[in-house]
Amino acid sequence: MLNDNEKVEFVIDITDRKESEVALERLNDASRELIDTNTETIADRVASLALAILDVEYAALWRYDDRSGDLEEHAADAAADGDADAFSVPSEVSDWVWQTFIDTDVHVENDIDGQMGESSPLRSCVFVPLGRHGVVSFGSTQVDTFDERTVELAETIAATVETAWDRAQGEQQLSERNEELERLDRLNALIRGVHQHLVDADSRETIEQAVVEQLADSALYEFAWIGTRDPGTGTVTSREWAGVDDGYLDMLSISTERTGPNEDPIAAAIRTTDLQVVADVAIDPRTAPWREVTLDRGARSCIAIPLRYNRSTYGVLAVYTSSPQSDERDHAVLKELGETIAHAIDAVETKRTLLSDSVTELMFEIHDGDDVLTPLARASDCEITFDGLVPQHDGAAHLFFATEDVNAKEVLDEARRLPSIAEVTLLRETETESVFEATVTGSTLASHVIENGGLVRSLTVTAETTTVVIDQPAGTTVRKFVETIQSVYPSADLVARHSRDRPIRTREDMRTILSERLTARQREILEIAYWSGYFESPRVQTGRDLSEALDITQSTFSHHLREGERRLCELIFDSA
């Protein structure tokens, strides 16, 4: 019992409560700071924020990389009077961090007792998981620092960080999805625009111009151009461009003859018919010849798209973007666009051939061919030029060909070793050229072309490649004729296609051509021989009769007659 004048005094230690209130205030401040922050800022700030809330000497974020599967220390911080670098982390800590991450449970070490090593002052630690983001760790230089209250506060800090991180990551993913949808909308609108122009186009030139203009006008690309391989120069030459000056294209010198690791990507697209990507023009060694002029025009990456349809190549489309690392998601779409463009070109060229008075000239390249001239070129180590073919009724044919700068005897010796050549003769030889006639058995490339209605304009054979230029036969499509060639020569690639007007010759045209090809004396003798019955069987007039009538020697008559006949044959066979 206490008297009225007596009192009892109670002393309550509220230090822990005050510390908790301060910590919660700091946690609320940290939550407000993180609410509008992106994931990278959160990752960078976690350690310092955690250290400010929980009154310990050390804090660190161990971040999980979902691409590599690694969990590594991302950021660390120490109290104001400490240095984070002084808290070295031995391998044991890494093990504890990993175990915490995979178990998603808090791990406490309150009496490390020297496990941290002499170089680290830490004597107690707690590791708290941050979901899929990683682990946050706290360290103290004292043992038994992490009691139940401190661990709960550490968990609250981690939960706050994880929530903010999830929100920021969700917003970032939503933003990326929106950007992707916008990008796809722009790309789809671009493709639709290109397709509409392809449908409306009536010529190859119109198609190519529309394609480059649509691409250059798009926000996705800086500029674009279309080029084709020029077999004569062995380079890629431009046909149409947009978004860039023609001076840029004049400065490009893209060889199609060089292969290897530093092969020009634009030439490689034509050769391999595979899409070629230059992620960064500034560092890709393949772009060295045109790097500076390309960077000067604001381009940082390039995509070379082959224009190929049904094994017919119509060149390459080069598209440039303003940033390095072009979006890989566009590559499949652009490759398909290249095929669509090539299909459209094929269609208008075929239509033009069928509806106009023109002829289509096709150039094929055949690799690993087995035609009779290929092994001869390989064995003789020379280039062989086809001159003509005269088929025989027994299936054989007289094949005429020429070589340059090679010993004629060596060619004859090699030709006689080939089982497909029954007989070979040297017709004439000069200092630089030799012309041969060979009797060949079986089919040849030239005979295959002729049998299918084509006309061989030129045919050149080397040890590696056969290049043939053919006038497409009337009444057939390019596609059908290409398939006809490739059915026998599977490695044949259509590398060029040109249309030109057919020469429509009237009687007056023929008279003009004859007057240009024949001398007055040759034409006089031919006409007299014709009207005198010299070419009848039996002859009405002989050569002696006509030479006497013309008051010239018979040898002179025969010379002019043969020369006139030769020039008429040239007129007929060289153009047919």
Automatic annotation (TrEMBL):
<protein>
    <submittedName>
        <fullName>Predicted DNA binding protein, contains HTH domain</fullName>
    </submittedName>
</protein>
<dbReference type="Pfam" id="PF15915">
    <property type="entry name" value="BAT"/>
</dbReference>
<dbReference type="InterPro" id="IPR029016">
    <property type="entry name" value="GAF-like_dom_sf"/>
</dbReference>
<dbReference type="InterPro" id="IPR003018">
    <property type="entry name" value="GAF"/>
</dbReference>
<dbReference type="InterPro" id="IPR007050">
    <property type="entry name" value="HTH_bacterioopsin"/>
</dbReference>
<dbReference type="InterPro" id="IPR031803">
    <property type="entry name" value="BAT_GAF/HTH-assoc"/>
</dbReference>
<dbReference type="Pfam" id="PF13185">
    <property type="entry name" value="GAF_2"/>
</dbReference>
<keyword id="KW-0804">Transcription</keyword>
<feature type="domain" description="GAF">
    <location>
        <begin position="38"/>
        <end position="175"/>
    </location>
</feature>
<feature type="domain" description="GAF">
    <location>
        <begin position="203"/>
        <end position="355"/>
    </location>
</feature>
<dbReference type="Pfam" id="PF04967">
    <property type="entry name" value="HTH_10"/>
</dbReference>
<keyword id="KW-0805">Transcription regulation</keyword>
